[in-house]
Amino acid sequence: MKNKTGVLLGRLMRNILRSPDTIITVAITPIMMMLLFVYVFGGAIDSGTNNYVNYLLPGILLMAIASGVAYTSLRLFNDIKSGLMSRFITMPIKRSSVLWAHVLTSLFSNALTLVVVFLVALLMGFRSGAPLLDWLAVVGILGLFTLALTWLSIIPGLTAKSMEGATAYSYPLIFLPFISSAFVPTETMPKVIRAFAENQPVTSIVNAVRTLLYGGTVGNEIWIALGWCCGIMFLAYIFASRAFKRKLG
Questions:
Q1: Rounded to an integer, what distance in angstroms lies between the CA atom of residue 238 and that of residue 242?
Q2: Membrane spanning segments where (predicted)?
């Protein structure tokens, strides 16, 4: 059996490059949210910062990732529905290559989307004096979060009965940042909502990214964020692998 992940990755990336509207479509929602909150609601929101786009950007990046991984489910579902996946597994290639190609495609395509969002944020006044090591840490956290959600997206991609079912799971992920510290400090929330917001993964990840970008003391926040990302990725990988074996034998 040969590892053909690179070949399969090239196939998926060519499809994306032939249809760049996929990346643009994914970027539109978070960019529109960023414009709406900065220019419409920003003046009424007390985030404790002078530049609201700086406060908002980490949460917007997570929303963009959550939107982007839905296409992983869709691409995988289409490969199965068309019979292409069954054809792949009859070839002399490692079966894991098929899934890893989809995972790496998600990583690359989401990276392109995040670059687009960053460029728009720069035009809106985003600035960061973070050193290179902190930027690398931000890239690492966003990469881990992308991998975690991508492996999560593999599960509905393998098990869904319809195209809508393959992508519907992403909607709660996209709106999870609204019940976190992404848009406003959790201190402003009612007790019950605040308890949930402070103990869900988005808040820890947003706080870690925000602190790294703007020179604060990260403390335990970064380890909690990494723990969430690695934990979700580990569990999702196990369930996705089992679903793959059940689906295609």
A1: 6
A2: 21-41, 53-77, 98-123, 135-154, 166-184, 222-240
Nearest Cα to Cα of residue 201 among 169, 227, 178: 227
What predicted TM-score, i.e. pTM, was given to this entire model? 0.88
Q: Which residues of 105-116 are buried (b: 16+ CB within 10 A; e: fewer)?
A: bbbebbbbbbeb
Which pLDDT tens digit goes with each residue over 36-93?
Answer: 888 887 777 766 667 889 999 999 999 999 988 888 888 888 878 877 676 766 766 6
**pLDDT at site 219:** 77
Which helix (H) or strand (E) segment holds residue 217: the answer is none
Q: How many domains does the chain have?
A: 1
Radius of gyration of the chain (CA): 19
Nearest to 169 by CA among 236, 218, 102: 236
Quote the CA–CA distance of 148 and 3 in Å, as a whole number. 22
Report yes or no: 179 and 196 within 8 Å, Cβ to Cβ: yes
DSSP-derived 3-state class of residue 220: coil
Work out the number of other CB atoms within 10 angstroms of the CB of residue 21: 10
Its domain, for residue 35, covers 5-248
CB 75 within 8 A of CB 12: yes
The 3-state DSSP class for residue 2 equals strand
Phi-psi region of 93 (alpha: psi -120 to 50; beta: other; left: phi over 0): beta
Q: What confidence tens digit (pLDDT) does each residue in 169-194 have? A: 777 888 888 899 888 888 888 999 99
